[in-house]
Write a structure and sequence with these properties.
Blueprint lengths: L14 H14 L3 H4 L7 H24 L2
Helix pairs in contact: 1-3
Length: 68
């Protein structure tokens, strides 16, 4: 969780940080086999990590749009 503490929707400015958030998101998703064993996803955490990824992608699209 050391690197994770630095991630936030406002801070994830580059591809590496967005990919780090994506990897954490994929770790958070519960496979069906584990779901039936009682493991559940944390919806707030999934939304938080998804927001980081979405905002980083939006910033990238905006940068590409404004670059001549």
């Amino acid at each position: 969780m050391t690197g994770e503490a630095k991630l936030s929707p406002e801070r994830a400015r580059n591809l590496a940080e967005a990919l780090a958030a994506y990897n954490l998101l994929m770790d958070e998703i519960v496979p069906e086999s584990q779901y039936y064993r009682g493991k559940r996803e944390n919806p707030e955490r999934v939304a938080y990590l998804g927001n980081i990824i979405e905002r980083a992608a939006a910033r990238r699209r905006e940068a590409e749009r404004t670059t001549p």
